[in-house]
Amino acid sequence: MYSMALIDFKCTKCGYKFFELVNFKDRDKVKCPQCKSGGVQQIYEGRCYFGSPKKEIGPACEGCDRARVCNDMCQ
Fold first, then answer.
1. How far apart are CA 73 and CA 35, in angstroms?
2. Torsion angle, CA of 12/45/57/33, rounded to 10 degrees?
3. What is the pTM for the complete model shown?
4. Domain limits, the chain
């Protein structure tokens, strides 16, 4: 079983910040959705991180700007 997480990234080429739901083992395969560069760096924005899917909504999820992505995981 592999762990999935909503991870924040920043492109080292164009500076675009984005997040993606990825398997921990595939973090090094993430590419920038804007410029398609493979030079992305994991960053921490401090919102919506999950240990397992289908958790109850917690304080980190309330009002989260990522509701479209993490809503199914929080409920």
1. 28
2. -20
3. 0.60
4. 4-74
